[in-house]
Amino acid sequence: MKLLFLLAGFYWAVFPSWASAMTVDGILDESEWETATRYTNFVTVTPFSLSSPEFKTEARIFSDESGIYIGINNHQPLNTQISERTARDLEMQADRNTVTVDFDNTGIAAYSFEVGNGGSMRDGIWRDENAFSDDWDGLWTMRTSSTGDRWTSEIFVPWDVATMVKVTNKTREIGLHVTRDVAYLSKKYANAPIDDSRQRFLSALETLKIDDYSGSSLQTFGYATSTSDRVKDDNKVKAGIDLFWKPDSSKQVSLTINPDFGHVDSDQLVVNFSPTETFFSENRAFFTENQALFDLQGIDDLRVIHTRRIGGRPDAGEDVVSDIAAALKFTSVGEDFNYGFFSAVEGDEQHVEGRNYYAGRVMRKTDDYSLGYLLTYTDRPDIEREATVHTLDFSNNLSSTLKLGGQLIRTLTETEGEQKNDSGGWINIEQQIASTWDHSLQVSYYGSQFEINDLGYLPRNNYKRVNYTNNWQDHTFSENSFVNERKIETVLKHQENTEGDRLNTSVSVKDSWFFKNTSLSFWRIAVNSDGVDDLITRGNNTVKTKWGKELELLYFGDSRGSFKYHVNLKMYDQTVDGKGFRLHVHPSYQFTDNYVVSLGTWLTSSRDWLIWQQDDRINSYQKKQFAAYFDARATFSDKQELSLKFEWIALRAKGNNGYDVSSGGSLLRRRENVEDFSLSSTAVQLRYRYQIGPLSNIYAVYSRGGSATLRDELSFSSLFSPGWDARDGDNLLFKIRYQF
Length: 740
Hints:
- It contains 3 helices and 40 strands.
- By secondary structure, the chain is mostly beta strands.
- Among the domains are: 210 residues, Immunoglobulin-like, CATH 2.60.40; 229 residues, no CATH class.
- The radius of gyration is 27 Å and the shape is globular.
């Protein structure tokens, strides 16, 4: 604790806070707003008609020593306004403003600040022109207000929210985009004729000059947690610290010591019988803060760095997570080059050695192209494994309508003295043929010994794919039409493994309709050729697959009232998944802006569902699965929030036939009975959050979960108790994270 107080004193002595006369209250009544830069010429970008909006929007922006202020007056009658207040980072179904800021105006990355009528907030990062991630949480504030003829949002972004190129003339050029979503019209207005749905977004942001006051800063977060494990009858108390130091605006050093991420944010319950790993996104503040430079993503769900590996299940022992001793990150942005390094070290436990992770990154960006290199190294001493990955990434705007991008990757691994080296990568070319028509071509290749999952994530290697996508949209509907916009997407895909075995070739068409009453629907049909499945047997004989088909229907109801719902039906006939359907029904009810409940249900039924047993043995089952997700949220005020989440998955599998997979891929029936089985998994979390300040919170969390597998096929009504009574986890957590 002495260290925390010393650091706090150092902060106030060396980096005093800038005083400001501004009050962020959702009311633009200060004199500074009168001289702010104004945007009033908004156009309609959803649908992308570029027509004059139905309502006037006025955005204002200025900066002072504290940061950047954005105020937006949204003129609209009160009886047509839709408002709500949700927890941070949840998608909003209300009127909202979104401000996108590229602090360096380079098109590399931009930060999104989204505010909903009623007080909801969401933030994230844009990369690669139009790829969005909401993993990032920034230190910014906002307020909204509503009157009879308009609602107003006021946003304050402090200078230390992100690293940015150091300027010398006290004037900064930023890229800026301001949008307004009118929920009851299903329309979006923008201050410029661009949209994130277009192939070029970041590089087309409006340029704005503002006064620059960026400089050095120090953010210090201390935390303490108390965890009671009611299953193991074990209590733990931990304390740690996060430091974010910017010696100037262009550089940042981030350090965390003895972090504990606890069970504040729970992952969705998953039952996975497939040979590929389930992906979970990152929600830990340290690994999302200032991570844009290292966050290399690609097609086929590729991530060169997947920080959820850090602190995950250890390579030895029975623990579910590993303790992280410390992590360090440094980034620097400049006019020509950006560079940085990253490291994380797990702690050693009894009979378990912690893993070590390292990464270094450099990137050059010009007006027309970007070129970068990323090196990662992972040391896993418990299994005597080391992994090194070299990645070269590039992006080039060949013209105003043509873009080329991709990654070339080399992996080198050594496990107990055995070395494996291989290559992989992808290339993507996109063209905006017309304002309503675009297409893209993707080609990817990952060798059979391409191994990136020590620190990265890739569902599979030994893979080749060619994918062509064609998108067309129509927004030329009359004023009397009930249709707002229509989009048709056609996808042609061919997949092989590196031995030349065809996995499948498919064609799909998706036809989406967006209606003026805020509802939407689509139908999608897909046809897959025959081929092989080379993963289901986990490296043994491949399985021949027959041609298959899918039909998917979706309808989102009118979202303007308190009751909202959507329904999704998918029917399929596939060799591995069997022949069946999945029905999803998801209603929600908003009592007031602050109180909402939601219930999601999924019912799956399938014949001839294939599950691998061992070696070349596969069983088929008649599958029935029911899943339910209940979410209740109460936002009592700007500072207090209570949420309850409950999930249940029940699976009934009636044994059909057992098969041996021949060397030619045929399924040879075995003369033996296949036993039935059932599975039940439950998870519940009750969480209370009190906000002390931006990103400073007190949490009280109770979580419980369990999973049970039974030999018989039981009814759904009989399956809840086994899953609930299993009680694999039962934890009570208290946590405080506070910025000094």
